[in-house]
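Query structure, 79 tokens:
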């Protein structure tokens, strides 16, 4: 459920259909600060969490599994 929603948010933000993989979409976002901010904000709003700035690093935008694990950590901490 978390992975699917993150992927949905990612697809809504990265509208360039030539970028095929999750990893490449994340890298595309990391090169654009406005898209990065929009992506993180959308995740935080949907899951009703606040991700610590220390957890939003290069790996957050380059490794989809790490991103999913980070979001799960905050979702589980809230419950």
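Result returned for the query:
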């Amino acid at each position: 459920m978390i992975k699917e929603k993150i992927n949905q948010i990612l697809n809504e933000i990265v509208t360039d259909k030539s970028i095929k993989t999750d990893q490449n979409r994340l890298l595309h976002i990391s090169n654009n600060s406005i898209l990065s901010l929009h992506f993180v904000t959308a995740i935080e709003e949907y899951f009703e969490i606040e991700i610590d700035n220390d957890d939003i690093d290069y790996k957050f935008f380059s490794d989809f599994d790490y991103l999913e694990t980070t979001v799960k950590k905050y979702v589980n901490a809230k419950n």
